[in-house]
Structure formats: structure tokens, C-alpha cells
């Protein structure tokens, strides 16, 4: 009878329990007592395939671990081929080897063996590691595909699961082009991709909103006579909903039924979400009605999208009542929707009441819950309350995530507190969370607001130096800062940089430049800039016109100011409080009291409530007008 020492017994028991899912990390941890006491040295001549095979079959993994740097690809491959009928041992064997010491053909052979397991998860994990590591070393996915085909031939297997798994792996890594390339390679080599493999590609294209590519791929599936299943149809209905083609989405539902594919709850929920996102609540209700008629019971996934839209319309109670009648109790997603809806409307009292109700019902607030509430508090200028909430999160031992940091940094930046914003940036870095474009845009904004343009430019250059491509919002923030400080040369140089990067400016870009030019009294240049906007296909908005009106009014050129106002009206823009106040300041400057009084009456008739600035300008214009009248009488 074999005698077991304590370490051997422990190793034997662990090997039985571990099975195919044994990890390298677990292996190293489990055998540390043994390897610390026995460290035999082996020469390459002592290593044979038989000894490796015997070690694997008797679970003597410590022996294999000690040899990992000395094993040749040939030796590893020979051992693997001897483990064809025991893929679980093949997985354990591979997990004890240093992946860096294995060449691609050996790795692919190992994956081919492991793919024989009932669960495809281990093979997919190994594939993931190979694709990530090899593509970093300029090995293409096509090369990996070819090696997998060779490994498949070597094992003399008819299954195409290896190649299907490679496509799935590419989809998991969001390698769109590579996944599609593998699909067409399979067809070229005479392999029939599974419908599930096609669904992986379609699902990825849908998630990335690459709807045109999704339709091209779907058409090829049809041409290649690859049958669609319920999941295929659900994905394509979702694609149609994303494109806003709701009638066609319903038509596809009818088509799938004609082909004998019965819809499921997901099919109907996808349609309900499509209608809800477009505000077509009655259409969503019609889908629910049809859903019920087919024997399907609506669930929370059915109602949550409707609840989201109704919250934005202030009609949450209506849909909550309907959900209650259906016997549906709100879940954490429902509560987060309600909290977001109330926060966006500034109704923080109700938002926090929903948070408390959520906790009472046994749902722990998520990061999304806290982030929504913190954002709402900053929007309502309740900084102290936001800080109390952050303290509560920290006391619970919850580490802040990137979104929370960005909300806080942006909140402090919007309120001009650069010191706290940069302190949070430093804390974010210390916690190992990489700042995003949004982080840097907020910091550049606050520096510009504090008129620290040198620091803003330096931060911008640092962002570029890190290899991060600035987006339009970041450029606009920096440009606005330079326009506000009168450095128009730098502002226009940023516009040129954007052109070089083929980044299209927007109305915000030009409004910043126009405001800067008007601030320097260059009204005609600002007017020309509006013309350039139109030539670029950018439609001026009410801010563009108000900027010009305000500029001309400050100059006292009320004639030009009113001409711009008339142009604004002719294009369908309604005057705002800012428009009227700017015009009144011009009339005040020119002592045109009667016109100021008429404009005030017009303003009220348009339903615009005057503010203190309005009345000050009118009073000043009337006062000057009366003084001039008295002088002329005398």
C-alpha cells in the first residue's frame, strides 16, 4: 500500500477536487509547502515525455512546475498528444507551464485538446490569453486561425468548435474586423460556422452601434443559408429599434413567426424598449397588449424602459400604479430610474426618499445610485450635502470609481474650486484610476475660468503627450478660455489644429470665437465668422445671434443690433431674455427711452418676464430721454 506523507496527502486531495478548472495561481499556492522543502534539480537529458506523462497522470504537478523552463515545444506537444483522451489532465498540465515558454503551435494544440471538455470556458480563456499576448507581438488572428486548423487536423477531429471559439474570443475582446475575418475564413476553408457564432458577431455589431455592418453580415448569413434562430431575430429587431425603424421591427416579428420561430419575452421587451426610447409610449403599450395576448407575462424588463421615459415626463406614478396592478415590485434598476428622474428635475427630496425606500425593500444602493445623487446635489449647488454623501460612501468602505471621481471633479470645477478638483485628480491617480478625457476637460475648464491660461495650455499639452486625443469639448473649453482673456491668436490657432486633425468644429466653437471678437470690438469680423459657420454647414443658434446683438448694443449700434434680431426672427428663433436685455442696453446707451418702453411692452407680450437688468436699462433710457426732453424745452 502506498504511504502518504502529509504534504503528499494534501496534494492528492486537492488534485481530486480541482478537476479541469485548476488554475496556475491555485497550483502555486497549494504546493508551496512541498516546493519549499524539496527542490531537486533536473538536467534536460533526464526529462522525457514518459516522465511528464506519468507525472500528469499521477498528479505530481510539482515535478512539472520545476521543469517549466526546460521543456521543449516538441516535448510538450508529444505529452499533450498522449493526453488526447483526458482533456482535463491536458488542461492541468498546460496550467502548470509558463505560457511564455510555449510557441504558438503548441498553444493551439493545447487549446484544441481543452476544447474537448464539456465546458468551453477553459478553452475560451486560454484562447483569450493567446490572442491578447500574440497580437501584441504582431502575430495576426489569421495566423492563430491557421494554427488552430493544423491542431484540429492533428487531432483528427471533425468538430469546428475550435474556430467558433476563436470568433467568440474576438467578439469578447471587441475585435470586430478580426471576428468577421475569421468567419469568412471558416467559409473559405469549407467549415460551417454555427448560428451561435454568427449571433456573437451580430450582437457585438449591435452593441457597438455598427448597424450598417450588422445588416451586411446578416445578409451574408442569409446568402450562405445559415439559419437564423430566436436570438438572431432578437438581435436584428434590436438593431431596427436602434435605427428608429419601429414598423420594420414589428414586421420582422411577424416574419419570424412565418418562418416558424416563436418570439419570446426578450423579443417583446426589445420592442417595448425601442418604442419607449423614442417616447412612443402608446406604441409600447400596444406591444405589451400583443405580448399578453400571446400568453407572455410582462416583467420588470418590460416596464423599466417605459418607467424611464415616464419619469422624464413627470408621470412616474402612473406607470408605478400599472406595475403594481401587474403584481410587479420595483427592483434596484427601477429605483435607480426613479432616482435619476427626480435628480434630473432637481427634486432631490423625492430622489432621496426613493433611495431610502430602496434600502427598506432590501436593495443596496449601487454606484449608479450614489453617482446620480451626487451629480444631482452638485447641479443644485448643494456642495455640503454632496460631501456628506461622499463621506457616507467612504465610511461604508466603498472605493470610489472613475465615474464618481469625474462627477466630483466636474462638480468642483463648475463651482470654480480648482484646489479640490486637482486634489481629487491626485487621489484618483493614487487609487490607480486613470483620468479620462472628461476628467481633463473639467480641469482645463476650471483653469480657464480662473484665467490661468498658461496652466491650462500646459495641462492640454500633457494630455496630448500622454497619447490621449483631445476631443471637441476639450478644444472648446480651452478656446473659450483664450477668447475670454483676449488671446484671439491662440484661439484661432486651436481652430487650425482642429482642422489638421479633421475634427469638425461646432456652433459652440464659433460662438466662443464670435464672443471673443465682439469683446475686442471686432463686430464685422464676428459677423464674417457667422458666414463661415454657414459655409461649413453649421447652423447658427440663438446664442450666435445674441452674441452679435450684445456686441452691437454695447457699441451703441442699435441699428445693426435690430437688423441681427430681425434676421434671427426670420430664421424661426424666438428672442430670449438675453436678446431683449442686450437691445435695451443699446437703447439705454443711446438714450432712446420711447423705443425702450415699446420694447419692454413687446417683451411682456411674448411672455418673457423682465428681470432687474431689464428694468434698470429701461429706467436709465427713460431718465436720459426725459432729461433730453427737458433740455430741448428750455
UniProtKB/TrEMBL annotation:
Q: Can the keyword Cell membrane be found in this entry's annotation?
A: no
Entry keyword annotation includes Repeat: yes
User: Where do the PPR repeat units fall?
Assistant: 159-193, 229-263, 264-298, 331-365, 366-400, 401-435, 436-470, 471-505, 506-540, 541-575, 576-610
Q: Which PROSITE patterns match?
A: PPR (PS51375)
Q: Where is the signal peptide?
A: none
* SUPFAM superfamilies, sorted: HCP-like
Give the record's keywords alphabetically: Repeat
Please name the PANTHER family in this protein's record. Answer: MEMBRANE-ASSOCIATED SALT-INDUCIBLE PROTEIN-LIKE (PTHR47939), OS03G0201400 PROTEIN (PTHR47939:SF13)
Entry's family note: Belongs to the PPR family. P subfamily.
Name by which UniProt lists this protein: Pentatricopeptide repeat-containing protein At2g15630, mitochondrial
What organism does the record attribute this protein to?
Raphanus sativus (Radish)
Q: Source gene? A: LOC108806970
Amino acid at each position: 500500500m502506498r504511504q502518504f506523507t502529509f504534504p503528499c496527502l494534501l496534494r492528492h486531495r486537492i488534485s481530486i477536487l480541482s478537476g479541469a478548472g485548476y488554475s496556475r495561481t491555485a497550483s502555486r499556492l497549494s504546493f508551496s509547502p512541498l516546493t519549499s522543502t524539496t527542490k531537486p534539480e533536473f538536467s534536460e537529458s533526464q526529462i522525457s515525455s514518459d516522465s511528464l506523462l506519468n507525472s500528469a497522470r499521477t498528479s505530481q504537478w510539482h515535478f512539472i512546475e520545476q521543469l517549466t523552463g526546460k521543456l521543449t515545444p516538441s516535448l510538450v506537444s508529444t505529452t499533450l498528444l498522449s493526453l488526447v483522451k483526458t482533456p482535463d489532465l491536458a488542461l492541468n498540465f498546460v496550467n502548470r507551464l509558463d505560457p511564455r515558454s510555449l510557441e504558438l503551435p503548441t498553444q493551439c494544440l493545447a487549446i484544441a485538446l481543452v476544447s474537448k471538455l464539456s465546458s468551453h470556458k477553459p478553452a475560451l480563456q486560454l484562447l483569450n490569453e493567446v490572442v491578447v499576448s500574440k497580437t501584441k507581438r504582431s502575430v495576426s488572428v489569421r495566423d492563430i486561425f491557421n494554427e488552430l486548423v493544423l491542431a484540429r487536423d492533428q487531432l483528427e477531429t471533425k468538430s469546428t468548435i475550435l474556430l467558433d471559439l476563436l470568433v467568440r474570443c474576438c467578439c469578447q475582446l471587441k475585435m470586430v474586423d478580426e471576428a468577421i475575418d475569421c468567419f469568412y475564413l471558416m467559409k473559405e476553408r469549407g467549415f460551417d460556422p454555427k448560428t451561435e457564432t454568427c449571433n456573437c458577431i451580430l450582437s457585438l455589431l449591435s452593441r457597438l452601434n455598427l448597424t450598417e455592418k450588422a445588416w451586411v453580415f446578416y445578409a451574408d448569413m442569409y446568402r450562405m443559408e445559415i439559419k437564423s434562430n430566436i436570438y438572431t431575430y432578437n438581435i436584428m429587431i434590436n438593431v431596427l429599434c436602434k435605427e428608429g425603424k419601429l414598423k420594420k421591427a414589428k414586421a420582422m416579428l411577424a416574419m419570424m413567426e412565418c418562418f416558424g420561430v416563436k418570439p419570446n419575452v426578450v423579443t417583446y421587451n426589445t420592442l417595448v424598449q425601442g418604442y419607449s426610447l423614442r417616447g412612443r409610449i402608446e406604441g409600447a403599450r400596444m406591444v405589451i397588449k400583443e405580448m399578453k395576448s400571446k400568453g407572455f407575462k410582462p416583467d420588470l424588463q418590460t416596464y423599466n424602459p417605459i418607467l424611464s421615459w415616464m419619469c422624464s415626463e413627470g408621470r412616474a406614478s402612473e406607470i408605478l400604479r400599472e406595475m403594481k396592478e401587474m403584481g410587479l415590485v420595483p427592483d434596484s434598476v427601477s429605483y435607480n430610474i426613479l432616482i435619476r428622474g427626480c435628480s434630473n428635475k432637481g427634486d432631490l427630496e423625492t430622489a432621496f426618499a426613493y433611495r431610502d425606500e430602496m434600502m427598506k425593500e432590501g436593495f443596496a444602493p449601487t454606484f449608479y445610485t450614489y453617482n446620480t445623487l451626487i451629480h444631482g446635489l452638485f447641479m443644485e449647488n448643494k456642495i455640503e450635502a454632496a460631501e456628506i454623501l461622499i463621506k457616507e460612501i467612504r465610511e461604508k468602505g466603498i472605493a470610489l470609481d472613475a465615474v464618481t471621481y469625474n462627477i466630483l471633479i466636474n462638480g468642483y470645477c463648475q463651482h470654480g474650486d480648482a484646489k479640490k478638483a486637482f486634489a481629487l485628480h491626485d487621489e484618483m491617480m493614487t487609487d490607480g484610476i486613470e483620468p479620462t478625457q472628461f476628467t481633463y476637460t473639467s480641469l482645463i475648464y476650471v483653469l480657464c475660468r480662473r484665467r490661468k491660461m498658461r496652466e491650462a495650455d500646459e495641462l492640454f499639452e500633457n494630455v496630448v503627450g500622454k497619447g490621449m486625443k483631445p476631443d471637441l469639448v476639450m478644444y472648446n473649453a480651452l478656446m473659450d478660455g483664450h477668447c475670454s482673456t483676449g488671446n484671439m491668436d491662440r484661439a484661432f490657432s486651436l481652430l487650425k489644429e482642429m482642422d489638421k486633425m479633421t475634427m469638425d468644429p461646432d456652433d459652440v466653437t464659433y460662438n466662443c470665437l464670435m464672443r471673443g471678437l465682439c469683446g475686442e470690438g471686432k463686430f464685422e469680423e464676428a459677423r464674417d465668422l457667422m458666414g463661415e459657420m454657414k459655409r461649413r454647414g453649421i447652423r447658427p443658434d440663438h446664442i450666435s445671434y445674441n452674441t452679435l446683438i450684445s456686441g452691437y448694443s454695447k457699441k451703441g449700434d442699435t441699428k445693426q443690433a435690430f437688423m441681427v434680431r430681425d434676421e434671427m426672427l426670420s430664421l424661426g428663433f424666438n428672442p430670449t431674455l438675453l436678446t431683449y436685455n442686450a437691445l435695451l442696453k443699446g437703447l439705454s446707451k443711446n438714450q432712446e427711452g420711447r423705443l425702450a418702453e415699446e420694447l419692454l411692452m413687446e417683451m411682456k407680450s411674448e411672455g418673457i418676464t423682465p428681470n432687474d437688468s431689464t428694468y434698470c436699462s429701461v429706467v436709465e433710457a427713460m431718465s436720459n430721454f426725459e432729461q433730453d426732453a427737458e433740455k430741448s424745452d428750455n
